[in-house]
Each structure stands twice: as structure tokens, then as C-alpha cells.
Amino acid sequence: MTDRPPLPPFSRETALQKVQAAEDAWNTRDPEQVAAAYTADSVWRNRDRFIAGRDEIVAFLAGKWQRELDYALRKNLWTFGEDRIAVRFQYESHDTAGQWWRSYGNELWEFDFRGLMRRREASINDAPIAESERRIFGPRPEAERGTEFPLR
Fold this sequence. Notes:
By secondary structure, this protein is of the alpha+beta class. Helix content is 24%, strand content 40%. It has three helices and six strands, in the order H-H-E-E-H-E-E-E-E. The chain has helices spanning 12-28, 31-35, 53-67; strands at residues 38-46, 49-52, 69-80, 84-94, 100-111, 117-129. A hairpin with a 5-residue loop joins strand 4 (84-94) and strand 5.
């Protein structure tokens, strides 16, 4: 297992780097790439689902991105500690019927000494939106990195 920098303990700068790296990975919609940032025995609570280990993470993400089409995400650092980071996020996607959704949430992350996430807890709410209300189009442009994404 190799290190996944930045490593704890986190500073504001390294916590921001970790959040941006997570956003970038999730925007690939590649379950294997995303799962590589987690420990082999990582545990998740995602909404009302409990997931354990990389194999379950990959299966969960593959199903997620089959249902949540054209998924695009923005994450913002909320706070951080020695080996923990809290983020708020928003993402948009549409279902197979064409209904667009904006999903709002908060995540709590805990990392091991190698910088791999060993615990993730996500609380998420979905709001239906019209396609004309979309604000998130693909990965964050370079010019917007480091900026707070507005709540509404």
C-alpha cells in the first residue's frame, strides 16, 4: 500500500488539497479510481446504506453512476483536524426519466497515517430541479478551484 498525500496531520492548505483531490476523483465517475483513495477495510455510511471495504465501495459507486447520469460534483472544506476533514458538497445528475436533481450533503472523513480514508459518513438530501436551473457542468474549471461554491 502506498501513501496517498497529503498526509495527516492536516493544515488548512493540505485539507483543501485533499478535498479538491476527492472532488476531482469523484468527477471521473470511475469507481476503481475513487475506491483507491480508501483503506481496504474502509467503512461508509452513505444516506441509509452501510458499506464496508473496497469491493463494496466499487459496487456501490458503479450502481450510483448507472442511476445518477451526467453526475457533476462540487465539494467545499467545512473544517479539519489532525486526521479528520468535514466537507459540504453539492452535485447534480439526472435519472433515466430525464428528471434533474441537485443533491446537498455533508461528509465526515477520517484518514489513516498513509492518507487513505478509513471512514466516510455522508448525509445527503435531494431536490428536484429543472434542467434550466443547473449550475454544475462537469469538473470544476481551473479558475474556480479554491473558491467556495454557493449554497443556492
